[in-house]
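In this supplementary section we document a worked example of the pipeline. Step one takes a protein sequence of length 162 as its only input; no multiple sequence alignment statistics are reported here. Step two produces a three-dimensional model, which step three serialises into structure tokens for compact storage. The input and output of this example are shown verbatim.
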Amino acid sequence: MAEKTNILLHSHVMKLEEELENLKVVRRKEVSQKIKEAREQGDLSENAEYDAAKDEQKEIEARIEEIENILKNAEVVDEDEVDTKKVNIGCTLKVVEKTTKKEMTFTIVGSAQADSLKGNISNESPLGKVLIGKKLNETVKFEAPNGTTYSYKITDIKKMSE
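The serialised model returned by step three reads:
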């Protein structure tokens, strides 16, 4: 089975590579030292420090593997090359909900970067799918997972980095 392609903004790739480097170079060394010190205390069967260090080591290795898989299957989008004539990954857009007149700001990102609490919505989410490809002043209808239908008018499209 083919692995899923992760669409990532260039800035996010840089953050992931920085985190990966830190995990491999700094954090591995730190946890290795903790394990060594805990082993020197003697009996490992009742050594909480040893158990905690081994758990931390597992978490670090799992995160390293996760980041490597994300990067291995990455399709990188350069924020500087994003076309703002229509909504696409790397665009920040303002919309106005037609009924309430509430203005909202969203940034369209790949699913690996999605964080709705920060306004980063995935291109694969129901709302993201509706918005992708739309132009300034277009109105889109969106049915939320709870069944409520919303109408959004796109009032601004700009590059994420602006």
